[in-house]
Amino acid sequence: MRISGNIFVGSKLRKGSVSISGDEMAFSEEISSSGITGTLVPTFINAHTHIGDFFVDNVPEGGIPEIVGPGGFKLKALKSAPDDKIISGMKSAQRVMKVTGTSAFLDFRESGVNGIDLLKASRLDGIKALALGRPVNGDKDLPEVLSRSVGLGFSSISDDEIRHMKSAAEMVRKNSKIFAMHFSENKREDANKLKELKPDLLVHCLETKDSDLEIIKEIKAPIVITPRSNIFYGKRVDYSRFLKHGIPLMLGTDNGMVNAPDMFQEMHTLFLYQRSIGYFEPEKLLEMSTSVPREFLKKFNITIPERYILFPNQRLTAYEIIEKGGYMEKKIIKIV
After folding, report:
1. For residue 270, what are the contacts with CB-CB under 8 A and spacing of at least 6?
2. H-helix segments, 18-82
3. How many domains does the chain fold into?
4. Do 36 and 150 have their domain in common?
5. pLDDT band (50, 70, 90) for residue 139
6. Whole-angstrom distance between the N-terminal and C-terminal Cα of the chain?
7. Percent of the chain having pLDDT more than 70?
8. Is residue 101 predicted with pLDDT exceeding 70?
9. Is 215 left (phi over 0), alpha (psi -120 to 50) or beta?
10. CA 86, CA 226: separation in Å to the nearest integer?
11. Is the domain of 48 the same as that of 65?
């Protein structure tokens, strides 16, 4: 197979062509006069989801503590819903991801071992679900949760005991898995504790100061941002601050009860939101959604099936992809 046109390769949208033979793919700057023409970009990696609450059909009321805090709206909804309803919602969320070009997602799994089982029961072909588990019985269920996931995803320093989190982080590192956590989402938290925990991945970091960001840069933890979710919860920050501190960024869609897990919408929203306060180049948004999370996962020997989004017969710019790509004709090209 040969595809010519605009190809997103090396974090840049370049004019050229790719030749695909089996599991081999080679890029050339030459434009071929034969084969398929169009625009080709890697499928998206949604770096932060909670698809367990996708079944919720009422508008959550309140702020972050009331909706997603300990004992809040979300956890009450999860506890009261039967498993089959949660699983059905998870499947629906993954169908949205598949039709909008996402081939893998990192899901923060509440509810311990049962939460991981629910995700496993909901899996669909063509999309890779990566569970970041969360123990519910202190250290008792930690080994089993960790053995059945790609790592751990904690709520925040404010919601858990630092002693327990340090113990969990040590076990995660011994098993060469991912230690991820929310940080400074609703209020500023002590960034010095990050030096003790050494998380591999942080989510949100909305209430951080410049000194906190320097610590995050020092521990080399990328940040996942979720602009649409933050807007829903009334949080409006300038995300370009993170880039100015040299921190790698990834995109996620967060809670399924407030956002469809559509990465086109996430890129579109971030581009519009940042345009007048801290401009994000369209290619940067594509990079945050494709190559940055892939490079992160490679560090933990997590491979993602090679799939690409093809916009046939359309030579799109990066701006057109993030602004209009969700509505245009496209198909998924499977390499491996």
Report:
1. 225, 227, 239, 251, 280, 285
2. 64-68, 73-80
3. 2
4. no
5. confident
6. 13
7. 100
8. yes
9. alpha
10. 22
11. yes
Using alpha carbons only, give the angle 54, 57, 63 rounded to the nearest 5 degrees: 80
Tell me the C-alpha distance between 133 and 219, whole Å: 22
Please count the other Cβ atoms lying within 10 Å of the Cβ belonging to residue 324.
15
138 with 10, same domain? no
Using one digit for the tens of pLDDT, what is the confidence trace for 15-52?
A: 999 988 777 788 888 887 778 999 999 999 999 999 99
In this prediction, residue 336 carries a pLDDT of 62
Q: From the CB of residue 320, how many other CB atoms can be counted at a distance below 10 Å?
A: 17
Q: Which residue segment(s) compose the domain that 12 sits in?
A: 2-42+306-334
Residues 213 and 292 in one domain: yes
Helix (H) or strand (E) holding 229: helix 227-232
Q: Of 36, 50, 53, 100, which is closest to residue 307 (Cα–Cα)?
A: 100
Q: Are residues 325 and 219 in the same domain?
A: no
Same domain (yes/no): 107, 236: yes
Count of helix runs (H) and strand runs (E) in the chain: 14, 15
Q: Beta strand 223-225 with 201-204: parallel, antiparallel or unpaired?
A: parallel
pTM higher than 0.85 for the full model?
yes
Query: Poorest-confidence range of 10-24, 168-182, 223-237, 288-302?
Result: 10-24
Whether 121 and 269 share a structural domain: yes
Cα separation of 43 and 246, whole Å?
25
- pLDDT tens digit string along 238-286? 999 999 999 999 999 999 999 999 999 999 999 999 999 999 999 999 9
* Structure-block tokens of residue 335: 């390499």
Query: Could you tell me the CA-to-CA distances from 130 to 45, 170, 297, 298, 303 in Å, in that order?
Result: 10, 20, 10, 13, 11
Q: Say whether both 238 and 312 belong to one domain.
A: no
